[in-house]
Amino acid sequence: MSPEPLDIYDQPPAEPGEAAQRPYLGIFFECCGVYARVYRDERDAEYVGRCPRCMAVIRARVGRNGTTQRIFRAK
Ligand SMILES: [Zn+2]
């Protein structure tokens, strides 16, 4: 019953400037059933994002021992 998240963001739309260079993850916020992109802070090794509706904070660490997953579900 749970929808299968599609990793359709391997080809991000071309954006001018540095925004196109920033890595991001796709997060599906199960709390509100919404999908949002989370961009990584240049100085940090983790992604910190907020649910666009209820502002719940999620964090995802990225590293050698971390996941290579690019689509996450957050509750
Ligand atoms: Zn939410």
Descriptive report:
With 75 residues, the chain is mainly β. The chain has one domain. Helices cover 0% and strands 35% of the residues. It contains no helices and five strands. The protein has a three-stranded mixed β-sheet, with no helix packed on it. Mean pLDDT is 73; it is low at 6-11. The site of zinc ion has 7 residues, from loops.
Features:
75 residues, mainly beta, three-stranded mixed sheet, two-stranded antiparallel ribbon, 5 strands, binds zinc ion
- Ligand types: zinc ion
The number of helices is: 0
Percent of residues in helices: under 10%
Beta content = 25-35%
Order of helices and strands: EEEEE
| Total strands | 5
User: Strand order across the biggest sheet?
Assistant: 2-1-5
The structure class reads mainly beta
